[in-house]
Amino acid sequence: MNSFFKNIALVLGLVIALGTIPFAMAMGNAAEGKVKAVQCAACHGTDGNSPVSAFPKIAGLGEKYLLKQLEDIKEGKRNVPQMVGQLDNFNEQDLQDIAAYFAAQPMQLTGSEAIAVRLNNGESVDGLIFGQKLYRAGNMETGVPGCMGCHSPTGQGNAPAGYPRLSGQYPEYIEVQLKAFRAGTRTNDGDTRTMRTVASQLSDAEITAVANYVAGLTE
Question: Computed over its alpha carbons, how large is the radius of gyration of the chain?
Answer without folding.
Answer: 17
